[in-house]
TrEMBL record:
Cellular component aspect of the GO annotation: nucleolus
Position of the signal peptide: 1-18
Domain DEAD-box helicase OB fold: 144-244
EC primary class: hydrolase
Pfam families linked: HA2_C, OB_NTP_bind
GO biological process: maturation of SSU-rRNA from tricistronic rRNA transcript (SSU-rRNA, 5.8S rRNA, LSU-rRNA)
Keyword Signal applies: yes
EC number: 3.6.4.13
Region (Disordered): 26-52
Molecular functions per Gene Ontology: ATP binding; hydrolase activity; RNA binding; RNA helicase activity
Alphabetized UniProt keyword annotations: ATP-binding, Helicase, Hydrolase, Nucleotide-binding, Signal
Record InterPro entries: DEAD-box_helicase_OB_fold (IPR011709)
Protein name: ATP-dependent RNA helicase DHR1
Amino acid sequence: QHGCLAYVIAAVAALSVGDPFVREASCDDAEDGGEPSGHGDGETDGVPGEQSAARRRFWQAQARLAGSEPTSDVLKWLTVVGAVEYAGGSDTACSEHFVRPKAMGEIRKLRHQLTALMQTYCPGAGAVMTQHMAPPNKTQQAVIRQVVLAGFVDQVAVRGDIAGYHAPDDETATRRRGLHAVPYMTMWSNEPVFIHPDSVIYTTARSSGSMPQAVVFAELQHSTRMWAKVATVVSPRWLATIGQPLCSFGNPLPFPRPEYNSTRDEMTCHVEPRFGPRSWPLAMVKVRQRRTGTRWQITDVIG
Ligand SMILES: *[C@@H]1O[C@H](CO)[C@@H](O)[C@H](O)[C@H]1NC(C)=O
Ligand SMILES: *[C@@H]1O[C@H](CO)[C@@H](O)[C@H](O)[C@H]1NC(C)=O
């Protein structure tokens, strides 16, 4: 779909290998809840000399790879994989992009293997591995984010205010300090999680002033808090379509009026889906229903 197969293969390879970036220059101060210093905008934390220059280069590279309106750490990984391979994949190319050569080598090997598997078992899909993987365009980015959601659909997190989470009083003060302190709820626990300050999601949140309503994450890390890592912004609408197996739909709403099609013996109507074990309410969607026995059952979500 939209020439996304090569990206999906690269994403699966990268997610299997894990974060390709070097750690040293990144946010050492994230753990105590502080903003990572010098993040993206070339500021330094006042450490003079070599170290702060390296830090600045690191954050500039991160900002470049994240793109102008970042929505996903996975997309950033795809961009760096494409950039490093385009530059020949050498150790120099790796260090210029602040990635570990070993991780890049493993990702390359996996991409080869997965591409070969696809060529063998799905020859019609047209899987090819090119050295020049251009960054995905907007359409492709949305498709890739939906594929990531499909892969991690049980690791969705919804912003605390939407999920009905109330922070205990003594925590509220410290947690109101910034965007990085916005709690999210996962599907399977009462404990809030926080999006790790390494995530590209902050770049967009800083300009919009708010954190996304829903994300999907690939990893949880326990330390001073529960950090959700490798995050991707998802549209709440996708939860009803891609996440349909995890939705309950309730009764058809009286308005807009259900429509019956006698030729097809089908009904289209609007419902209010609820997502996951905590029944997070989603916006109304249109669905198609068919009769099975005496009951009407939803066959698909139209949107
Ligand atoms: C992105 O590229 C795909 C494949 O080449 C194409 O089908 C799609 O229309 C492009 N979308 C945009 C917004 O350029
Ligand atoms: C019912 O479905 C058929 C087949 O898709 C379509 O041709 C027809 O226009 C529909 N009728 C109504 C009333 O929507």
